[in-house]
Amino acid sequence: MRDVLDKVYPWYQAGESFGLATVVSTFRSAPRRPGAAMAVSASGTVVGSVSGGCVEGAVYEEAEAARTTGRPVLRTYGVSDDDAFEVGLTCGGTIQIFVEPVSRRTFPELPDVVASLSAGEPVAVATVVTGADDGAGALGSRLVVWPDRSSDTLGSAALDRAVGLDVRGLLDHGTTMLRHYDTVGRCLDGAERAEPGGLTVFVESFVPRPRLLVFGAIDFAAAVAELGSFLGYRVTVCDARPVFATASRFPHADEVVVRWPHEYLAEEAGAGRVDDRTVVAVLTHDHKFDVPLLTTALRLPQLAYVGALGSRRTHRERLACLREAGLEERELARLSAPAGLDLGARTPQETAVSIAAEIIAARWGGTGRPLTRTDGPIHTATAPDERPPAPVEAG
Description:
Elements: H1 2-13, E1 18-27, E2 37-40, E3 46-48, H2 56-69, E4 73-78, E5 94-102, H3 110-119, E6 123-130, E7 142-146, E8 149-153, H4 157-172, E9 177-181, E10 199-206, E11 211-215, H5 219-230, E12 234-239, E13 255-258, H6 261-270, E14 279-282, H7 287-298, E15 305-308, H8 312-324, H9 329-332, E16 335-336, H10 348-364
Parallel strand pairs: 11-12, 11-14, 12-13, 14-15, 15-16
Antiparallel strand pairs: 1-2, 1-5, 2-3, 4-5, 6-7, 6-10, 7-8, 9-10
Helix pairs in contact: 5-10, 6-7
């Protein structure tokens, strides 16, 4: 929902009802991940996407129907053996989409969710996507969960307690996924999911943007900051030299900090402002900055990526200095240097693409090889243990 929220919230504030379609489950090579959304306004305006084009037409009709009837529905789309270009995913995947009406009446907590997102406060929305017609676990009922509180209800106190506890665990890690329960909140696994009265809950976690810490206020840093912002990171550029570290030189950064890099990183880590999604890009090429900074970074176990720019000669010298500083080989093995994938990059912008590509590959387990030289699914599964849903026709 986050990707369309800035477009649909004005509709909500104006008192309009709209249809919201959300990807809740994928299998194999589906093009969009759970949480991707498409919305249809009362005037027929469409924002967002759930499949990159494969099933948008069918989902548009479902969203219109949900808006006008007020009834939510779960639909499954997949490749048709008879005609892969009919309604279905021509890319070879299967996708489940929950379509619901959204208005002030159906989602009164939405302003609270928006406020939390604006404030950078973690929040999750748990929505029943298969369930009863009414009562506990009713289809479309939802629970909004924060680390310290919750609002709305799934229909019973027992169900709210059980689901709320699970959702807080998922929220801690920013996880979005399906969960399966009975109506008293007992988690169902495997064959138990088919038991009468079972319900499926889609948990969508909203956590603050991951951080990209760029050290070194150079032209390459400006390009990395711009691309990092485009990819959804909260970007900080840090350099000890105030003449270079200025907001005007880095318009795409969320903040520009004048500090010794290793001191700033240590302070942020000590304050709990870095986590296992945080990316560090060291672009200074100067051992007096690089060595203390990388010594600090490589000893932080939670960082997602630590990369350093520089020639192979510079990197060999850097490694020698890091060893002298006491770093062990297992710590040095976490360093990606020279940073980036082999794209033949020359310009700062091309180099930024190279570094961003390596960060993406590290995040999702990609190989960095051309797809023409790989086999298997293009998109990795969100939940490897999730059984593929059975395709059904829309309508």
